[in-house]
Amino acid sequence: MSELVLINVSGRDKPGLTSEITGIMGRYDVRILDIGQAVIHDYLTWGILAEIPDESQASPVIRELLFRLHSLDLQVRFAPITEAEYQQWAEGRNRACYMVTLLSRDIKAEQIARVSEITARHGLNIDNITRLSARPSLDQGDNRIACVEFSVRGTPEDLEDLRSDFLKIAGDMNVDIAFQEDSIFRRNRRLVVFDMDSTLIEAEVIDELALEAGVGEQVSEITERAMRGELDFSESFAERLALLKGLDESVLERIAARLTMTEGAEYLIRTLRSLGYRTAILSGGFNYFARHLQARLGIDYVYANELEIVDGKVTGRVAGPIVDGARKAQLLLEIAEREKISREQVIAVGDGANDLPMLSQAGLGVAFRAKPLVKESARHAISTLGLDAILYLLGYRESETRLASPR
């Protein structure tokens, strides 16, 4: 009968350590059933589940490992594992795996505690915890970005209840928590579609136009109610547009020049392009400004409303059908079909109620700095960091994205 032994090693990391340990085991024809290693601040935690054949016996292997590791000033622990224990553990590997992504300006112990408490309460066990963001400087200031990813395994009884618990503590602690199945699609997305106003750019362009027309307060109030889902988008859009009648078209260029990109937007899109993703703007705003962003960022597709202008003046109407929530969802599916990908490979990002239909169609829908109704309705939300935090939801480490697209 072979013997199963779990070997845990800890101490200061040294080059060649894995080679030394496995080299000793190799002389005894040891079979490796599982192996894992983590290094934090040059200190190593290393584990291996070994099957030692009967003819080799465990004692000589353990004695030689103990002597060598002691000479390297490393701590080691050996634990026998029964066949039944191994079988139970191996079967547990077949349970569903999920990724919990914690996004914050700073990772605090309380945040880890609250997240791990919720996963445990819902029957999920943490397999791995990985920091995706770069190690922070001690004097980095207020522009910090921090992300920790938990790989968890289990079968939660109520996924919606679990998501609700995460949403609540995210609000309590001013963090973002994403929960998604670790499926084949997670790192195989191919298309990202964005809303424009208050997503790629910080402004609502229709509000900027209204300021130039002298009807800023009236239009802003309608916009706010529409984004909260209190008004039908198409009706509110037509109402706001009518207030712009007579505005001189020369103001469009002036507004485009002063538009501010959202935090992380340029880095995100540059990185996505370098990784081979296709991108699109699906906007209830206006084509003039969407085309301006397309030229600046290298966006592949643009669909927005065509502001009707006659004799150099805004008429207060759009040319063609309004791009509302339903149209955005339809366009998402059409672009995916054109790109020959499934909708599970699409990421959609938006902030308003009219973005919910496209967020629900995408494999990964993200409510970005959204109103409460939209955050609660979307499956994922980012409120504390910039748009580039989406890269963490895809599982990319900052060290990987820096190689693809330096900041």
Tags for this model:
single chain, 407 residues, alpha/beta, 7-stranded mixed sheet, 4-stranded antiparallel sheet, 16 helices, 15 strands
Description:
- This protein is 39% helix and 27% strand.
- It has 407 residues and is α/β, with parallel strands linked by helices.
- A seven-stranded mixed β-sheet has the order 12-11-10-9-13-14-15, with helices on both faces. It has a four-stranded antiparallel β-sheet with strand order 2-3-1-4. The protein has a four-stranded antiparallel β-sheet with strand order 6-7-5-8.
- Helix 4 (109-121) packs antiparallel against helix 5 (159-173), helix 6 runs antiparallel to helix 7 (216-227) and helix 7 runs antiparallel to helix 8.
- The longest helix is centred in the middle third of the chain and has 15 residues, at 159-173.
- The protein is elongated.
- The model has no long low-confidence stretch (mean pLDDT 92).
Tell me about the biggest sheet?
Answer: 7 strands, mixed
Spatial strand arrangement across the major sheet: 12-11-10-9-13-14-15
Number of strands: 15
Helix content: 25-40%
Supply Rg: 27 Å
Q: State the shape.
A: elongated
Distance between the termini: 56 Å
How much of the sequence lies in strands comes to 25-35%
Low-confidence stretches: none
Total number of helices = 16
The structure class reads alpha/beta
Mean pLDDT across residues: 92
Quick recap of the structure?
The protein is α/β, with parallel strands linked by helices and 407 residues long. The chain has helices at 17-26, 58-71, 83-92, 109-121, 159-173, 205-213, 216-227, 233-242, 250-258, 265-274, 287-297, 325-338, 356-361, 372-377, 390-393, 398-404, and strands at 3-12, 31-40, 43-52, 75-81, 97-104, 124-131, 146-154, 176-181, 191-194, 278-286, 301-310, 313-319, 346-350, 364-368, 380-382.
